[in-house]
Design a protein that fits this description.
The complex is a heterodimer of chains A (147) and B (77).
Chain A lengths: L2 H17 L5 H8 L3 H13 L4 E2 L6 E4 L2 E2 L6 E4 L2 E4 L3 H10 L4 E6 L6 E6 L10 E4 L14
Antiparallel strand pairs in A: 1-2, 2-3, 4-5, 4-6, 6-7
Chain B lengths: L1 E4 L2 H11 L7 E2 H12 L12 H10 L16
Classes of the chains: A alpha+beta (147), B mainly alpha (77).
């Protein structure tokens, strides 16, 4: 991976971790000192390497797993900041990426019952709650947003 | 479509009503281990996605050994 792509990837992740939202293209230009087209081209190369997913217009970040650049039903709170996970797995993943302490607020997809769970590095206690994936692992990146 | 469900029964009902296939599920302690394995170092400059062999090993280590979790499996069920 070109060093500039690695720098852009790191800048995206740092921004999401510090702000809980996707950087705008103009913000990325200021942060990494590159023109918009260079950054958008890098986004596409990083997408091809399955490292992040730009928005449809290529100007922001839809997914930098585990962080979501758009609101989802999987809210995560770490310290004073709020984040969104792309999915149930990523909701836990945001907390794992940010040190292991935080709170997940989501729901049962079948009943709508809220799931509010405080996590520490030792993980949650066992319960009747389950995690389910529709798409087999071998096909996850065929349509990662659906997955 | 990576989602939480209150119970196995809720999951079964949802799959049936939506006509989605019922896949192997994981517990929340297993999901936490998945989160750690995938993402604990994601903010590091050297972070990378696990390769397929590593992915299979991660799932197997936490008790998810069904071919559904194998990124190289020709899973058609």
């Amino acid at each position: 991976m070109p060093d500039s792509d690695l720098e852009i990837r790191q800048a995206v992740y740092r921004y999401l971790a510090e702000n809980g939202r996707s950087p705008a293209l103009e913000e990325m230009c200021d942060i990494v000192g590159q023109p918009p087209q260079e950054i958008q081209d890098a986004y596409q190369r990083l997408r091809a390497r399955r490292l992040l997913v730009p928005s449809a217009d290529g100007r922001s970040i839809r997914m930098a797993p585990p962080f979501s650049g758009v609101e989802t039903q999987h809210r995560v709170y770490v310290g004073e900041r709020q984040y969104y996970g792309n999915c149930a797995w990523d909701a836990f993943g945001v907390i794992a990426a940010l040190g292991g302490h935080g709170r997940v607020e989501s729901r049962c997809e079948a009943t709508g019952e809220p799931l509010i769970l405080s996590l520490t590095p030792s993980g949650p206690n066992d319960s009747s709650w389950r995690f389910h994936v529709v798409v087999p692992a071998a096909q996850w990146w065929n349509d990662i947003v659906f997955t | 479509m990576m989602l939480f469900f209150r119970s196995e029964e809720s999951l079964n009902d949802w799959c049936e009503k939506r006509a989605y296939p019922r896949r192997p599920s994981a517990t929340l302690p297993q999901l936490w281990k998945m989160g750690l394995a995938w993402y604990a170092d994601r903010l590091s400059p050297t972070a990378r996605r696990p390769n397929p062999d590593e992915i299979r090993g991660i799932f197997s280590d936490i008790g998810l050994s069904d071919p559904f979790w194998d990124p190289r499996a020709d899973y058609l069920a």
